[in-house]
Write a structure and sequence with these properties.
Blueprint: E1 2-10, H1 15-26, H2 30-41, E2 46-47, E3 52-53, H3 54-66, E4 69-76, H4 78-91, E5 105-110, H5 114-130, H6 136-149, E6 151-153, E7 156-160, H7 164-191, H8 193-207, H9 211-224, E8 226-228, E9 231-235, H10 239-255, H11 261-274, E10 276-278, E11 281-285, H12 289-305, H13 310-324, E12 326-328, E13 330-335, H14 339-355, H15 361-374, E14 376-381, H16 397-405
Antiparallel strand pairs: 1-2, 1-3, 1-4, 5-6, 5-14, 6-7, 7-8, 8-9, 9-10, 10-11, 11-12, 12-13, 13-14
């Protein structure tokens, strides 16, 4: 069954923002969406002429309601479907949409505020100082809970269900493995003579093959504690496979003086994204190294000429490419940020941090979150009601191990 969606009115507080979101949902120009919002404010309903699927109707209505729109969904039978198809052909210009498909584009949104995050961060800092650093595990969890709960998709926010106690336990387990190794290493260096000194110098290299293994543990924990509409995410990649991908990719990238990097990067992306699940719905990734190789080589050349500045534009391209090749079921993501927009975002962030001596950091975090969600949409047809929970538990050892090595965990 399909539906016709009608907006009867709008009662929000920011018409410009509502028009911007509406344009993304219905794939229309900003001018058209502004006209729609103006009509709704005057009490004149607006009908979306194309029919939408039963799977799309619920999430679309929930999201629009969260933006202040009063939504009416009208089920259509087969006769109505034919009539709506005819109406769409007559009333909607072909260039009004980015796609000829009758799909909706569901945006993400971030509702957090810098002043709220500043309050959380300030209290966390005081407690961390008083507890001589022990509270940092609970501090990290509180920040994460705030960011997750203020990230919204289709009218519902995400939730983070991890605890500071789990991170603290993971840290203790990791230290229980690391300290004996450090003791043995110290003894070797003290009494082992030249051989012991050499072993001590080479010992850090033993950790690098373990980094992807720890990354898997960290990402598995992070996803297993993330939920949307009560359904958790999970990661099911194997540690051994991660280690092989990164060892092979790192070696080939080194001996080819960096030319193998695009192929290595796409293999790594496929590993992280195809092993990420939402309930029983598995992620897919279709990117290929050969498709980005030319842009990568050009980016290296232009980055040298521009003293590294052009790499921001290439990074933005990579973000767009990775998300556009990521799918869940029949839906795919779309990320629209350009290099210029990313450059301005980073420039303003740096200026804020410099002129406030770091006090504006919570506002910078909020700016980054809002920027990311405002440029990310999910397009296609996913039946969220058919997604069921498949629990995959994971401990927090991997995440705290990465913190100890100061290695980023935002993989994929």
């Amino acid at each position: 069954m399909s539906h016709q969606i009608t907006l009867n009115s709008w009662f929000g507080s920011d018409p410009d923002q509502a028009a911007k979101k509406l344009a993304k949902v219905f794939r229309m120009s900003l001018e058209q969406s502004e006209t729609v919002v103006d009509k709704l404010r005057d009490g004149r309903p607006w009908k979306f002429a194309r029919k939408i699927s039963d799977h799309q109707a619920g999430p679309a209505a929930a999201y629009l309601q969260s933006l202040g729109f009063q939504v009416d969904l009208q089920p259509l039978d087969s006769t109505d479907d034919d009539a709506m198809d005819s109406l769409a052909e007559q009333e909607i210009p072909a260039n009004q949409y980015e796609s000829s498909e009758s799909e909706l584009s569901l945006p993400f949104a971030f509702m957090g505020q810098g002043k709220e995050l500043f309050g959380i961060t300030f209290v966390n800092l005081l407690k961390t100082i008083v507890t001589l650093g022990i509270y940092r595990f609970w501090a990290k969890t509180k920040v994460r809970q705030y960011l997750w709960s203020n990230t919204v998709f289709a009218g519902d926010s995400f939730s983070y269900q991890g605890t500071g106690k789990e991170l603290f336990r993971g840290f203790l387990k990791f230290m229980g493995m690391l300290i004996p190794f450090m003791i043995v290493l110290g003894v070797l260096q003290a009494v082992g003579g030249p051989i012991g000194q050499m072993a001590g110098g080479l010992a850090p290299l033993l950790f690098w093959p373990l980094v992807p293994v720890l990354m898997v543990g960290a990402w598995r924990y992070r996803l297993s504690r993330t939920a949307w509409r009560g359904i958790r995410f999970s990661f099911r990649g194997e540690r051994k496979k991660a280690m092989m991908i990164y060892m092979k990719g790192g070696f080939l990238t080194a001996i080819t003086l960096g030319l193998y990097w695009p192929f290595f990067r796409m293999q790594a992306e496929a590993f992280w994204r195809e092993n990420s699940w939402f309930g029983n719905l598995q992620g897919e990734f279709t990117g290929e190294g050969k498709e980005i190789f030319g842009k990568y080589v050009l980016a290296i050349f232009l980055s040298i000429i521009t003293m590294g500045i052009y790499w921001i534009w290439f990074s933005a391209y990579m973000q767009r490419y990775r998300w556009s090749h990521t799918r869940f079921g029949n839906a795919h993501f779309r990320f629209t940020a350009t290099g210029g927009e990313v450059f301005v975002l980073n420039l303003v962030n740096v200026l804020l941090l410099v002129f406030t001596v770091g006090l504006s950091y919570p506002w910078v975090v909020v700016r980054n979150q809002k920027f990311f969600t405002e440029h990310l949409t999910l397009e296609g047809d996913v039946d969220m009601d058919s997604v069921v929970q498949e629990m995959k538990e994971s401990g927090a050892v991997g995440e705290e191990a990465l913190d100890a090595f100061d290695i980023p965990v935002d993989v994929g």
